[in-house]
Design goal:
Blueprint (H helix, E strand, L loop, with lengths): L5 E2 L5 H11 L4 H14 L6 H6 L9 E5 L14 E8 L5 H11 E8 L5 E2 L6 E7 L9 H7 E12 L14 H7 L7 H6 L4 E7 L2 E5 L3 H10 L1 H4 L5 H15 L1 E5 L2 E7 L1
Parallel strand pairs: 2-3, 2-6, 3-4, 6-7
Antiparallel strand pairs: 1-5, 7-11, 8-11, 9-10
Helix pairs in contact: 2-8, 8-10
Length: 267
């Protein structure tokens, strides 16, 4: 049986900054609602979780570790055939929902609250699959630990943003601070970072655009509100909201790049 312990590191200044951003995901109802808005406004109607799951050789997968698991967003699209699903997340609020989701697909479900990056006191080669969906830019220092935890034939699946997602917003505001956050592990630099630890890396691009029409101001307002901790790195979120809603009415439509990339890495 796999036993998992977390050795927490002492918080650093940057870590506290990232903690503030992570707190923005604590409202589960809002998180789900934003997910619905993204789905409704996306030009790409293919579900990215299904695309990512389709890249995994599930015949080999019995044990899964999800870093930055949230409320089990990725696990919700999986079928029930696993021995163990372990999720690690900073927010304890996600425990109940994650366990409810993981217990549907695995014989054993575990949730650990921890502030990553941190060493995980688990034997090497404990997991068939490690997942990090839209979270690795919070803790790219974990890539080496992921390699240690993966079995020899294991897979590391990660989904991340493209730096180009800021292109439209940067026509109006300086988002250089937010760009630095995304650049910690992005579509553009992810392969190079993975190759420092893994011998096999591959990726699939997920092209997408969020489209808001003149009558979608409510959705745009909520989307900006959800992203306010990210935005506040550089700009007052209320100023961004005011400007973008005015531009929506002036132009009749706003389109935001939301191209993502799915990486699969092996030892």
């Amino acid at each position: 049986m796999t036993t998992i312990l977390i050795y927490k590191q002492k918080p650093l200044g940057y870590k506290c900054f990232m903690e503030k951003i992570a707190r923005s995901y604590s409202n589960l109802d809002l998180h789900r609602k934003i997910g619905d808005i993204i789905e409704a406004r996306s030009s790409n109607k293919e579900e990215i979780r299904s695309v990512a799951a389709g890249l995994v050789d599930w015949q080999r997968i019995r044990t899964v570790l999800d870093l930055g698991c949230g409320y089990g967003w990725f696990e919700k699209v999986l079928g029930g055939r696993l021995d163990l699903v372990c999720g690690i997340d900073y927010l304890g609020e996600n425990r109940e929902e994650f366990l409810r989701t993981a217990e549907r697909i695995a014989k054993k479900a575990v949730f650990l609250q921890a502030h990553l990056p941190a060493a995980i006191d688990t034997p090497p080669e404990s997991f068939d699959l490690v997942v990090s969906a839209y979270s690795l830019y919070f803790f790219p220092e974990m890539i080496g630990e992921v390699k240690r935890l993966l079995k020899s034939e294991g897979q590391f699946l990660t989904i991340t943003h493209s730096e180009s997602m800021l292109t439209e917003g940067e026509k109006y505001f300086d988002f250089s601070g937010l760009r630095k956050v995304i650049q910690r592990f992005s579509a553009e630099n992810g392969e190079a970072l993975l190759k420092e630890h893994f011998t096999v890396t591959a990726f699939v691009d997920y092209p997408n655009t969020l489209v808001f029409g003149r009558h979608d101001g409510g959705d745009l307002s909520q989307y900006i509100e959800f992203k306010k901790e990210f935005i506040s790195v550089d700009v007052d979120p209320e100023l961004v909201k005011e400007k973008m809603l005015a531009e929506l009415q002036r132009l009749g439509e706003l389109r935001f790049n939301k191209n993502d990339r799915i990486f699969v890495a092996k030892k």
